[in-house]
Write a structure and sequence with these properties.
Blueprint (H helix, E strand, L loop, with lengths): L6 E11 L5 H6 L1 E10 L3 H6 L8 H12 L6 H15 L5 E8 L11 E8 L1
């Protein structure tokens, strides 16, 4: 068996954080959703069934949470920090696909959110 590509996924992590350009956003905060797809060779854990051979989901969540709790003006900045922090924390990771959405953004429109998508490679 050959595994051509493999990923660890965290979908729709929810956070209340203080990102935004408007003073009100930085004061009361808002709700955000983060999804990640981390590129990593999973051929070892597929064969071994050993958690030491893979990327720990709980640790990955802690990395994302730490970066989400640092207030920033731009979602682009937050997303870049998350991607860099994931690659720093997990040397075996080769890429990070990240979606960061701000729910109910202050733009005068009825929408599910506004956000950014980043594809980051080592």
């Amino acid at each position: 068996m050959i595994i051509e590509r493999s990923y660890i996924l965290l979908k729709e992590l929810r956070f209340h954080a203080y990102h935004g350009v408007m003073p009100q956003e930085r004061k009361v905060g808002g709700d955000f959703i983060v999804s990640l797809r981390v590129g990593i060779d999973l051929s070892r854990p597929v064969a071994s069934d050993d958690v030491a051979d893979t990327l720990n989901y709980a640790t990955l969540y802690k990395v994302v949470k730490r970066e989400m709790m640092i207030p920033s003006q731009l979602l682009e900045h937050v997303g870049g920090r998350i991607g860099e922090a994931v690659l720093d924390a997990f040397p075996q990771a080769v890429s990070v696909d990240l979606t960061l959405m701000k729910l109910n953004p202050p733009m005068g429109a009825d929408s599910k959110g506004a956000g950014v998508e980043l594809y980051i490679i080592r």
